[in-house]
Amino acid sequence: MKFIILILCLLLTNLFANSKLRVGVLAFGTVNWELSIMKLNNITSQYNIDFEVKKYSSKNAVSVALNAGAVDIIVSDFIWVSRQRANGFDYTFYPYSKATGGIYIRPELNITNLTQLNNKTLGIAGGQVSKTWLITRAYSKSKYNKDLITYIKPVFAAPPILNHKILDSSLDATINFWHFNAKLEAKGMKKLISIKDMLLELNIKHDLPLVGWVFSEKFAKENKQLIDGFLQSSYDAKKLLSTDNKQWNKIKKLMHVKEDKTFQSLKDGYIAGIPKSFGNNEKESAKKIFKILAKEGGRKLVGKNQNFQDGTFWEFKPTITW
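RESULT FIELD:
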């Protein structure tokens, strides 16, 4: 009898061994907003799954955690996923957000197009292979037949430093991540051009998410209920944040904002970035972006293999009811 009970316990342990997903995130990343809403509203329980959050201090540390098997899923971009697949990993990508950066300027400069940044200082977040920076350079070449690097003064720095410097007039303009741009907008800085508008010039007409949930394809196939349940939970949290303003009050402390204008700007930016479709059109646009970025960033960005890899995108159709 004891033997039978032991066997049953082992079977049950194996059955529920992967019912909790390990999610790796930046300690202060915006992904935490959504994950907190999922926890506070117990969203994943209706799909019979659970998750734990593991926080890391840098984007590189998050990636290393996935490579080492310390976490099951992270947020990254599909450029990185394609590169990893070319290197023998089986990672795959599903959209998380289409919120992207852009160029913000000090309003008193009265600048209306990119070429007027001639000899001006431009702060850039994300380093020399920042996707926004590379797309901006491609846009400048296409629109004005000039490489941006030849007529501006680039300043590469961390996102908070760039915001501080443009606000104290040490910089003329910045290329930063969307949530830092939202804070600048609330402080009166002016948007010169968005990534969406740049992509239109580059003949990419469909909105698409550059960042998404990233996980092992093998793991996902072996734990389909866990992955698909989590992805659906992510959309359920997005629905709450889009339709119930009270949800934002639950995470306001997590957002580290004091002014109502900044709080509203961050809410608007997050909601505007929610992807509601990711079909063939978006996937073809993603491949076009990859080609542009591979040309601009070269091996430093995409590695030795500059071809977009099959299997980069995970197939899943969420239920979207709003």
